[in-house]
Amino acid sequence: MTQNETSAAQGCIFCAIVTRQAEASVVYEDETVVVFMDLNPVTPGHRLVVPRKHAVGLEDLDGASSAHVWSVGHDMARALRRSGMSGATLNGTVSPNYLSVREWRDG
Ligand SMILES: [Zn+2]
After folding, report:
1. What are the sequence ranges of the domains in the chain?
2. How far is Cα 15 from Cα 105, in angstroms, rounded to an integer?
3. What is the pTM of this model?
4. Of 2, 22, 83, 107, which is the most exposed, with the fewest CB atoms less than 10 Å away?
5. How far is the CA of 26 from the centre of ligand 1 (A)?
6. How many angstroms separate the alpha carbon of residue 5 from the centre of ligand 1?
């Protein structure tokens, strides 16, 4: 059993999604991260960038993986902007173990 599978068995929803033990609308994945639509989107297009390696906090990731999470989030934000969400800025929020990318509206 891999580290992710073990963590999924322990109830980590992100690892469950990464290992496909839980359903999610995956929009991008590579060897380091999986990006999927937020189940409770704050705004249209709201997505989460999650590292494949289980991490409680960003400090648990090695530097290259942490940088890649941010790099992919940057690409996702750029794609959201290109999809026609003009007039809005894009917000990347770093939570303990994922990067949230969504349109940001004032008020
Ligand atoms: Zn996990």
Report:
1. 3-103
2. 30
3. 0.79
4. 107
5. 16
6. 9
Cα(102) to ligand 1 centroid in Å equals: 22
- Residue of 63, 52, 58 lying closest to 2 (CA atoms): 52
Instruction: Give the distance between the most distant pair of CA atoms in the chain.
Output: 47
Q: Write the pLDDT tens digit of every residue in 20-42.
A: 999 999 999 999 999 999 888 87
Average pLDDT in the chain: 79
CATH homologous superfamily for the domain 3-103: HIT-like (3.30.428.10)
Sites in the chain below the pLDDT cut of 50: 9, 86-88, 107
Cα 17 to averaged position of ligand 1 atoms, centre (Å) = 9
